[in-house]
Amino acid sequence: MSKESLANLLKEERRFTPPAELAAAANVTAEAYDRAAEDRLGFWAAQARRLSWDTEPTETLDWSNPPFAKWFKDGKLNVAYNCVDRHVEAGHGDRVAIHFEGEPGDTRTLTYAELQREVAKAAHALTELGVRAGDRVAVYMPMIPETLITMLACARLGAPHSLVFGGFSADALATRIQDADARVVVTADGGYRRGKPSALKPAVDEALTKPGTENVRKVLVVRRTGQDIGWTEGRDIWWHDLVDRQPEQHDYEVFDAEHPLFILYTSGTTGKPKGILHTSGGYLTQVSYTHHAVFDLKPETDVYWCTADVGWVTGHSYIVYGPMSNGATQVLYEGTPDTPHQGRWWEIVEKYKVTLLYTAPTAIRTCMKWGDEIPARYDLSSLRLLGSVGEPINPEAWVWYREHIGGGRTPVVDTWWQTETGSIMISPLPGVTEAKPGSAQVPLPGISATVVDDEGREVPNGSGGYLVLTEPWPSMLRTVWGDDQRYKDTYWSRFEGRYFAGDGAKKDEDGDIWLLGRVDDVMLVSGHNISTTEVESALVSHPKVAEAAVVGATDPQTTQAICAFVILRGDAAEDASLADELRAHVAKTLGPIAKPKRILAVAELPKTRSGKIMRRLLRDVAENRTLGDVTTLTDSSVMDLIQQKLAAAPASSDD
Ligand code: 6R9
Tell me: the pLDDT tens digits for 122-144? Predict the structure, then answer.
């Protein structure tokens, strides 16, 4: 699928210039691109000065042993000091760090001074449990302040944390504990989700019966829900018994810039999960800079809210380390967007007067499905900037987000990055870039990215291929935990000397980058490569469709046949002509070759907790296979419903 289809998607030529007021006061202006292009390393050395170093680095990058990078290697710092204490020392102790909103409606406010005391106590507590610099701490928690406090306490001690999503099973947790050889687990009895307590501790108990987890000496447990839990004497300790009695001051140690900060596992499609390793100085420099640049944060006046789960990399970089290194005031919400009603998020925006909102396309499309009238009931006029992350945001959802959430005023920044990149890499700058809905557009200042063909040649504007990063960047992963070879093989062997992201992408006529989804998801139909993202975008541009997931199912005639699963908008009926109508719409938008062979209206799509559609599972159902691993799914009953529906629906016969 080529130029014409992309041109079709772009044909409305919707462009949005930055609001004049925002542009005039923007943290970062167009000059940054030039400065970084002239002297990339000098640019990053300047950004490193955003941080407080105990020993200033003199060397910016050591790339003598690629792909193993060392950034700011002779610099020394403490990450937690940078995220908390220094703001208090600068006189901002009374500034709110966290407005916590529990799902049941309980609230808690923590200023930076209070946070400093809580982190100090937690650091003493972990030390009492035997945690030393270098020891790994597994964290299996709900979205509550203690989770952030634990992460910062680990950072303070130089003990890398490894967060595991609360939604993961005991097996998934055990695998991650084993791989990182964690010594302590921090958890809670449970958290609130969808209006009820959802247990966490039983999964920890089960995980710790599995071989390879014997080195876990202690389990620290926050009481959140008060539900009954099992207890292992000598191993389990209540947070309130241990942490509350600790001193409120803690002297921090300084660590090398390359000291490990955290491990975060990505599941990938095959093989055991990869432990992505991030280190301290380079990571903190880039998350701090990108948060400042992309969200235009004004710490004195903005109220920032990132809706991601803290167990996802977005939570690490844009709830904890980026915003807190910048002294932000932010909202932390525990629960789901529709508990107790579908306006909960907008109620929170109104209540805290949120100015900057960062969320995922899947959430935006879900709100589109629920209907425009829900956000319309709330005062969202405090918002001045919206962000998106996690999947390509189709132009229709982008425009809806700007209109119905951003009141038609706010810029929308579509931010492309990965667990592996640590920070945002490709994104508009809100005060600079003329925005194009659906495109992440340009690499940030100091970042070098392009699109190449199979042979690694840079493609001309108007063509597609593979996204690569051509120069090392400060917050890049340093390796796969315990597996340097896998690090090289996965990311640095496909194209010599360049980082292979695994995403398909196109450059449009202006050279702006459009992300097209994972390379593994590209479909082959009668000799044509068709990206799932493009067909999904075409479907969502039809007024009846809120969300779509497309997969290629094996087909004797065409190699693969396009199979589409769609969620309809609130008021759209599923009638007999729907499939034909949608097929005709895709044929018109993208061309007849992209017409889905089967279209199925479903109530929900299988998604991970970070909101990514699990196309692998949809491929399994479309090909009548038993389902692969479903442990990372938010709600596993979704797949049963889809299977039943598919079994009842006749396949379309023409084409
Ligand atoms: C931050 C995060 C990474 C993958 C990435 C890509 C997809 C993320 C995107 C996007 C298009 C965007 N992705 N942001 N695709 N446009 N703005 O999501 O990390 O969970 O590791 O996923 O997500 O496919 O390669 P992670």
Answer: 999 999 999 999 999 999 999 99
546-593 pLDDT per residue, tens = 999 999 999 999 999 999 999 998 878 888 899 999 999 999 989 899
Whether omega before 160 lies within 30 degrees of 0, making that bond cis, reads: no
Stretches where the chain sits below pLDDT 50 are 1-3, 6-7, 11, 652-655
Question: In terms of DSSP bridges, do strands 218-222 and 190-193 run parallel, antiparallel, or are they unpaired?
Answer: unpaired
Burial 390-402 (b: 16+ CB within 10 A, else e): bbbbbbbbbbbbb
Whole-number CA gyration radius for the chain: 24
For 523, list phi and psi in degrees, rounded to 5.
-100, 150
Q: Is 439 in the pocket of ligand 1 (CB under 6 A)?
A: no
Ligand 1, atom 23, lies closest to the CA of 390
267 C-beta closer than 6 A to ligand 1: no
Ligand 1 pocket, residue 422 CB under 6 Å: no
Contact 397, 361 (CB under 8 A): yes
What's the pLDDT at 645? 79
Q: What pLDDT is recorded for position 640?
A: 83
Amino acid at 366: T
Pocket perturbation via mutation, ligand 1, pick of 163, 391, 414, 477 by most ligand atoms within 8 A of CB: 391
Centre of ligand 1 from the C-alpha of residue 416, in Å: 6
CB 477 less than 6 A from any atom of ligand 1: no
Three-state DSSP class for 378?
coil
The DSSP line for 82-111 is IIIIHHIIIIITTSEEEEEE-TTS-EEEEE
183 token code pair? 């010594």
Specify the residue for token string 């928690």. 141
Q: At which residue do the structure tokens 């944060």 appear? A: 297
518 lines ligand 1 (CB under 6 A): yes
> Exposed, middle or buried by CB within 10 Å (0-12, 13-18, 19+), for 603?
exposed
Q: What is the pLDDT of residue 328?
A: 98
Helices 145-157 and 112-128 sit at what angle, rounded to 10 degrees?
A: 60
Pairing mode, if any, of strands 304-306 and 274-279? Answer: unpaired
CA 482 to chain centre: 24
